[in-house]
Write a structure and sequence with these properties.
With about 200 residues, the chain is mostly helical. The chain is about 75% helix and about 0% strand. Helix 4 runs parallel beside helix 8. The termini are far apart.
Amino acid sequence: MNPLKSPKQKVADKAEAILAGAMQEFMTCGYAAASMDRIAIAARVSKPTLYSYFQGKEGLFTALIQQMSQSDRLLDEERFLQHPIRESLKLIAIDFLDKFSGEQPLLTLFRLIIGESGRFPDLAQTFVRNFEKPIIEKMSYLFAHHPDLNVADPEITARFFIGNMVHYAIVQEILNGRDILPMERDRFVDGSIDLIIGGN
């Protein structure tokens, strides 16, 4: 660790290392079998230090979800409202699908949540509360206020748009349906936008 870093930066770096260790452990063992001891080893911190940053596995899992949520750079009101609606929606859709592709951390986390949701419904609710809900609320606002649009129910439109993206990611990436239900991503995105904006 760089001795010239501020105490605040050192704390942030240690939290980042702990979250990286937790992600590695969750990916390898799942939520139920994940061990705080192994997370501490992976993060190269002591167990008391681990607990001083995060109270337990649920706290770590919540922090990972929040970390993923903070990267939604395209859900920016000013950028969305000042650009043509088709351009804005395409940027958001592609950014969203990029996060749910290949071995991206968000896809891994989502796969884990789906697999553990039966035994740990609180984890699934944590994901909905910290990731899905803010996106739906922001998209609802954007659909309600974009000057090129006049939708009857902005929340339904937002749920339709985001739900479409989630379904595509689940079928293509999590269920490995690319060969069974092939669909080129740009065609899917453009078609989804057409359903919302029509001739706009």
